[in-house]
Design brief:
Keywords: DNA-binding, Nucleus, Transcription, Transcription regulation. Pfam families: Ets. Belongs to the ETS family. This is Transcription factor Spi-C. By secondary structure, the chain is mainly alpha-helical. Helix 1 (3-34) crosses helix 3 (55-69) and helix 1 (3-34) packs across helix 4. The longest helix is centred in the first third of the chain and has 32 residues, at 3-34. Strands 1-2-4-3 form a four-stranded antiparallel beta sheet. It has helices at residues 3-34, 43-46, 55-69, 74-88, 92-95, 100-113, 136-142, 157-166, 191-202, 210-223, 239-258; strands at residues 174-176, 183-186, 226-228, 234-237. It has a domain at 157-251: Arc Repressor Mutant, subunit A (Orthogonal Bundle), CATH 1.10.10.10. It binds a DNA duplex through residues 152-154, 156-157, 188, 199, 202, 204, 206, 208, 210-216, 218-219, 221, 228, 232-233.
DNA sequence: GGAGGTGGGAAATATC
DNA sequence: AGATATTTCCCACCTC
């Protein structure tokens, strides 16, 4: 890969990040306007997707809006660019053993500096405290166990997915589709990273891949814990599963805060 | 036509 | 030993 291609890749990542950021933020605002999760529509009918616009047009609109949102563009935007470029740069974050979670510190710093204190991966919106140590590993290390997995039972994939979704540092890998309860989407670029982390967490001998992980996610359709949304890379927690996870996470968060 | 995502059957494996 | 929850492999189909 030559330098120009590397820059191009960096720019693509940045563009994807900004688009996702804008989508999430605009949905979050819409959500706060309605302030009622129970009446929210599903991802199918509220997703302001790029499919509905010609790609170029969408990007331009998004970038224009994003530019105006990021005024002044300097510190936050530059840090976003820097972090993403670093994350993307020649797979360094992957090859060096530096994973998305290691990146979480950088990204959290970015989030702290983001306009309006915007939070990318927090279903609970702005009331969720953002800490620099929210990676699952760090949290698991420092907290009394509260999830079934952590109580001694086996860690289950949907718990892990929820952890990832609640971790702002993982927002560029997997994130909530904000205006839809329990709907989440993998990043096309970083989906494999989530799978890798899942494999590492389970201590699998073979490396986990997105394909294998998605097979496991599809298995949840039988038990109804997670269903596949008819949209690329998109899944949805059942309401029951979501409320259980949220209440468990609430306890954990309280424990985190009291430390 | 190829790549990537999806859907699902089936057997293997790990853990409780 | 049996149940459960993946994991792994594989194949077919679909969409872009």
């Amino acid at each position: 890969m030559n330098r120009q291609q590397e820059y191009q890749t960096d720019l693509e990542v940045i563009l994807e990040f900004l688009e996702e950021h804008y989508r999430q933020e605009s949905r979050r605002k819409a959500l706060w306007n309605t302030s009622d999760l129970s009446v929210m529509s599903t991802s199918e009918d509220v997703d302001i997707s790029r499919e509905k616009l010609p790609a170029g047009e969408h990007s331009n609109i998004v970038l224009e809006k994003e530019k105006s949102q990021l005024q002044p563009p300097a510190p936050a935007a530059q840090q976003v660019m820097g972090s993403l470029a670093k994350a993307n740069g020649s797979d360094s974050y992957k090859d060096s053993g530096m994973n998305c979670n290691s990146n979480a510190v950088d990204q959290s710093a970015v989030l702290h500096n983001a306009p309006d204190g915007q939070v990318l991966n927090a279903l609970n919106g702005p009331e969720r405290p953002l800490t620099l140590n929210t990676t699952p590993e760090k949290c698991a290390e420092s907290l009394p166990s509260i999830t079934p997995a952590e109580k001694g039972k086996k860690l289950r994939l949907f718990h892990f997915m929820f952890e990832m979704l609640e971790d702002p540092g993982m927002a560029h890998c997997v994130s909530w589709v904000p205006a839809s309860a329990g709907v989440f989407r993998f990043s096309a670029r970083h989906k494999e990273r989530v799978a890798e982390l899942w494999g590492q967490r389970k201590g699998n001998r073979m490396p986990m891949t997105y394909q294998k992980m998605s097979r496991a996610l599809r298995n949840y359709a039988r038990s109804g814990e997670i269903i596949k949304v008819k949209k690329k890379l998109t899944y949805q927690f059942s309401l029951a599963t979501l409320s259980t996870l949220q209440s468990q996470h609430g306890v954990k968060k309280a424990a985190c805060g009291s430390k």
